[in-house]
Amino acid sequence: MIQQKFAFLEFARPLFSERVALAWADPRAAMPRLIGDEVLSVEQVSPARAREFGAGRKAARDAMELLGHPPRPVLQAEDRAPIWPAGLIGSITHSARDCLAVVSDDPDIRSLGLDIEPLNPVEPALWPEICTTAEMNWLATLGPSQRGHFAKLVFSAKEAVYKAQYPLSRTMLEFHAITLQIDLNEGTFQADLNTDVPGFVTGAAFSGRFAFLSGSLLTGVELR
Hints:
Layout: H1 2-12, E1 20-25, H2 47-66, E2 75-76, E3 82-83, E4 89-94, E5 99-104, E6 111-118, H3 127-130, H4 133-140, H5 147-169, E7 178-183, E8 188-193, E9 205-213, E10 216-223
């Protein structure tokens, strides 16, 4: 587990700027201690979901401490979005074996979005649900054995964009509301909005980064 932790901290660190702290926790471990009303979010959930929630909060508090802040509760809104303490912003993501959180107190950063996905290919039948026409055309330029894996990159990048914009717009976005341009050599992507949402107009661009590690895909967006 220690090796897994430090691998993520090393490889995921470049996804964000210096004033964004990143921390990892294991959702398979014993339930971490919750703070205050955080316990209300796990009263009627399965043990696995409770451990996942607890790992997310542990990672968030570890990230707070990296920034020099005391650990504070991160409550859950009715829509299940994290409620960050005053002066902090962040994002939490889970997979079956990993939980990561990013937190920042930089007033120039408006929002953060982080997503982790297992690096298994997306079935071709699902590509049109996830991808715009431009993205489908991009997938067609790749080798047949690559397309499903990079469809997963499209999926994850859009999840990170969604998580970054949601605290500001409070708007649910469809996959086709975003069109990506992906630079595989640089490990970056640009996401362009195809619709107006509160706080953002059609054509608004979100910049992000991605990394592959140990069968996992990480995507991150930092809005300024």
